[in-house]
Amino acid sequence: MYVLGIGGLGYKDSAAALLDDGRPIAAVSEASFTGIKHEGGWPHRAMRYCLDHAGISVREVAGVAVANNPWLPMREKVLKWYG
């Protein structure tokens, strides 16, 4: 069973990882493809790499895990307010 993990959505350091029955198959950051350090946003190139590396299509992925920290935007605002 394949699980695709994605992180860094909308923040920094977006990346993707693919697991097969809990074993890591591939993991890569979006910055590896764009050349921009700490690249944020949707990691579509990283996700494609993970799927291609395993030789599977997105239809074979049983689940997607999304790493998200809802407090991260608030943390940045507070740090700006208090310097």
Helix content: 25-40%
- Helical run tally: 3
Low-confidence stretches: none
| Biggest sheet architecture | 4 strands, mixed
Question: What's the N-to-C terminus distance?
Answer: 46 Å
- What Rg do the Cα atoms give? 15 Å
Q: What oligomeric arrangement do these chains adopt?
A: single chain
Spatial sequence of strands, sheet with the most strands:
3-2-1-4
Order of SSEs, N→C?
Answer: EEEHHEH
| Number of E-state strands | 4
Describe this structure in words.
This protein is 31% helix and 31% strand. The chain is an alpha+beta fold and 83 residues long. A four-stranded mixed beta sheet has the order 3-2-1-4. The relative contact order is 0.25.
What attributes characterize this protein structure?
83 residues; alpha+beta; four-stranded mixed sheet; 3 helices; 4 strands
Give a quick rundown of the structure.
By secondary structure, the chain is an alpha+beta fold.
Task: Give a topology summary.
Blueprint: E1 2-7, E2 15-20, E3 23-29, H1 31-34, H2 44-54, E4 61-67, H3 72-82
Parallel strand pairs: 1-4
Antiparallel strand pairs: 1-2, 2-3
